[in-house]
């Protein structure tokens, strides 16, 4: 039995399977595309200390074609929204008792913790020994991991400063777990007090938006993390990260929008056809505002602080709304949804299971590719795209290995020992 639990061939077959247990297939396509965009954009940031033409990234700020990679952090809120949406849709039908909540908590922890713990321990004790060279410099990264490993393993690192986390992507792991802890009681209570739960969710959504607007307006913070021609001091960015970027009360709109959208999928009420016809135009306008709304600011134009505060407060919820709306239109198979059928390709299914691991390990992989060189790299758009593609491929390969060699054997052994007493199903 143990041999079957740890069988590489058996686990690989399951991990690479394109079979799907649900009908919300477009979510998986959006997840894979979104994480690929995020990894690509991160490569343009991680490369800054390792290039000889040091002004390369800042010179490209003037290019509007480059701007979607410069201003990209709202994609993370899109991931949070559709992860919440999919989780809500999958568990709504089976969440009947508080015992079900406990089982789902146990399953999610078993899915997440083994791989996450391995990555944190690997970064703490082994990563700095992987290579050497004149630009192999990771002192701050390794020191952060050694000093804050327990905060990461408890998924509370985002309640502390950015210097109290291991990998930069660790805050997203914490957010996903924290929101999952909230989601199940909300879904359970909504079966009995539907209107009250919706009222609390909508009120919390607006409260978070107002909070972000107030903080950016009154503390004169930047609207998000991006490169600008007028360089912003690192201390100001650190304040933004510690005050808004990693905090659940500031990033909760994406979670709440995904939660609220889940009720549209199970509702028997039909939506007005005129609204569905207007949806593509509305989503296009919202998308253009989110993607390019900070382009004038990034190239040094003087922008009123109130506009920056409005953008900061709205761009993440708007993008979460756009992404969830695309999923809904695909589900309803109407107008723009028909054009997005490629999002439902089966090839996305195995990759979508590992998106958060890919997000996490893409940082050390890209840093390894840059810093193991013996001289600084001369950066061009094409060389960076090649490195980004390589990072995406290696990150997905690494995520599959971690799933097959660590996560699945531990899950299988524990479920076998418990004789399936706590097993329900593996989400996603």
TrEMBL record:
Keywords: Membrane, Transmembrane, Transmembrane helix
Record's protein name: Uncharacterized protein
Record carries keyword Cytoplasm: no
Lineage start: Eukaryota, Metazoa, Ecdysozoa, Nematoda, Chromadorea
PANTHER family: NOSE RESISTANT-TO-FLUOXETINE PROTEIN N-TERMINAL DOMAIN-CONTAINING PROTEIN (PTHR11161:SF14), O-ACYLTRANSFERASE (PTHR11161)
TM helices/strands, residue ranges: 29-51, 71-92, 104-127, 170-189, 196-214, 249-266, 275-297, 309-331, 351-370, 382-415
């Amino acid at each position: 039995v143990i041999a079957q639990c740890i069988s590489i061939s058996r686990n690989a077959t399951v991990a690479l399977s394109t079979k799907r247990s649900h009908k919300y297939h477009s979510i998986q396509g959006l997840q894979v595309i979104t994480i690929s965009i995020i990894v690509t954009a991160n490569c343009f940031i991680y490369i800054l200390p390792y290039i000889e033409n040091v002004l390369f990234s800042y010179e490209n700020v003037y290019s509007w074609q480059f701007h979607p990679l410069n201003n990209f952090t709202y994609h993370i809120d899109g991931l949070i929204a559709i992860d919440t949406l999919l989780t809500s849709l999958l568990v709504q039908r089976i969440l009947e008792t508080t015992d079900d909540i406990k089982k789902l908590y146990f399953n999610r922890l078993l899915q997440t913790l083994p791989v996450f713990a391995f990555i944190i321990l690997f970064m703490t004790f082994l990563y700095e020994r992987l290579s050497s060279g004149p630009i192999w410099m990771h002192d701050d990264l390794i020191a952060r991991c050694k000093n804050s490993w327990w905060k990461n393993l408890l998924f509370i690192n985002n309640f502390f400063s950015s210097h109290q986390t291991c990998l930069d992507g660790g805050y997203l792991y914490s957010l996903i777990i924290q929101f999952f802890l909230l989601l199940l009681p909300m879904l359970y209570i909504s079966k009995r007090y539907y209107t009250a739960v919706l009222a609390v969710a909508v009120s919390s959504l607006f409260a978070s938006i107002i909070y972000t607007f107030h903080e950016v307006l009154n503390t004169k913070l930047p609207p998000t993390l991006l490169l600008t021609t007028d360089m912003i001091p690192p201390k100001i960015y650190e304040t933004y990260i510690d005050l808004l970027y990693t905090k659940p009360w500031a990033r909760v709109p994406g979670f709440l929008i995904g939660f609220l959208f889940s009720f549209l999928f199970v509702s028997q009420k039909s939506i007005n056809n005129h609204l569905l016809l207007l949806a593509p135009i509305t989503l296009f306008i919202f998308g253009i505002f989110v993607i390019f709304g900070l382009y004038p600011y990034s190239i040094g134009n003087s922008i009123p602080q109130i506009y920056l505060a409005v953008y900061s407060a709205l761009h993440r919820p708007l993008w979460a709304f756009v992404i969830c709306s695309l999923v809904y239109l695909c589900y309803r198979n109407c107008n723009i949804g028909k054009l997005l059928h490629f999002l439902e390709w089966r090839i996305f299914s195995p990759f979508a299971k590992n998106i958060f691991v890919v997000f996490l390990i893409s940082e050390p992989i890209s840093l390894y590719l840059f810093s193991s060189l013996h001289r600084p790299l001369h950066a061009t758009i094409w060389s960076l795209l090649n490195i980004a593609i390589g990072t995406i491929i290696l990150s997905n390969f690494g995520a599959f290995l971690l799933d097959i060699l660590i996560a699945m054997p531990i899950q299988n052994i524990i479920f076998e020992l418990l004789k399936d007493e706590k097993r329900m199903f593996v989400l996603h």
